[in-house]
């Protein structure tokens, strides 16, 4: 859990720094920063998605995962949770808390470093991958907080649940996580990150939150594909 704790610390520190800069950042500059992050997010997502060796696994993972997520209304639940926190703890602080929480949580939790780093930390105690991710997330938190607000800090809770859960479960699922499965999970997560980038650029609203089950579906389908 050491790597996850460090990751949480950098996100919170980055959020504080971003909120400080926000007061001095012109609206035009903030908008440009968001666009820059959006473009970079597209790049990261595409680079991950291209790692797939079985596009059908990714396709069916997205399709099935979207059906499951929409039925569960995961995105609505995430936004409702953040909105309730905003109503309770951030009255008068302005809107955007839910958006910052959802966007940051998705970006920080969906990706190969989160999966591989958490598993490595749990199985061997080596948290170097998560430390590298923590540094990246810290810098992203500065830019995110400067544009999306204090909701970015709430993503630390999502990181704790997601990465911490993966770390604790790593030993139990050791025999199930093959290299091929992780690769297809990474590719599927990459497409979700592309969706985040499209949303950030204002091109189209993508309900990425409802697609999150696709990651777990990719794990199952990749395993089935190996046996076929």
Explain how this protein is built.
The chain has 228 residues and is mainly α. The chain has one domain. Helix content is 79%, strand content 0%. Helix 3 (55-72) packs across helix 9, helix 5 (97-109) runs antiparallel to helix 7 (128-148) and helix 6 runs antiparallel to helix 7 (128-148). 44% of the residues are buried. The model has no long low-confidence stretch (mean pLDDT 81).
Please report the distance between the alpha carbons of the first and last residues.
36 Å
Number of domains: 1
Q: Which runs of at least 5 residues are low in confidence (pLDDT < 50)?
A: none
- Beta-strand share of residues: under 5%
Shape summary: globular
Q: Report on the biggest sheet.
A: none
Count of distinct strands = 0
Indicate the structural class: mainly alpha
List the secondary-structure elements in sequence, H or E: HHHHHHHHHH
Average the pLDDT over all residues and give the rounded result.
81
Radius of gyration: 17 Å
Residue share in helices? over 70%
């Amino acid at each position: 859990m050491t790597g996850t704790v460090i990751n949480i610390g950098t996100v919170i520190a980055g959020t504080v720094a971003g909120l400080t800069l926000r007061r001095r950042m012109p609206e035009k500059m903030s908008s440009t920063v968001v666009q820059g992050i959006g473009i970079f997010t597209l790049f990261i997502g595409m680079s991950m998605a291209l790692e797939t060796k079985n596009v059908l696994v990714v396709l069916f993972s997205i399709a099935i995962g979207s059906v499951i997520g929409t039925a569960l209304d995961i995105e609505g639940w995430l936004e409702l949770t953040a909105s309730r926190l905003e109503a309770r703890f951030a009255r008068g602080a302005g809107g955007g808390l839910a958006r910052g929480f959802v966007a940051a949580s998705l970006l920080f939790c969906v990706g190969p470093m989160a999966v591989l780093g958490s598993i490595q930390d749990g199985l061997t105690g080596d948290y170097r991958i998560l430390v590298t991710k923590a540094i990246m997330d810290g810098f992203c938190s500065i830019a995110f907080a400067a544009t999306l607000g204090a909701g970015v800090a709430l993503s630390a809770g999502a990181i704790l649940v997601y990465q911490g859960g993966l770390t604790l479960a790593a030993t139990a699922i050791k025999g199930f996580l093959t290299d091929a499965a992780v690769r297809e999970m990474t590719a599927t997560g990459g497409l979700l990150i592309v969706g985040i980038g499209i949303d950030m650029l204002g091109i189209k609203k993508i309900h990425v939150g409802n697609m999150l089950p696709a990651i777990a579906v990719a794990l199952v389908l990749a395993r089935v594909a190996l046996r076929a």
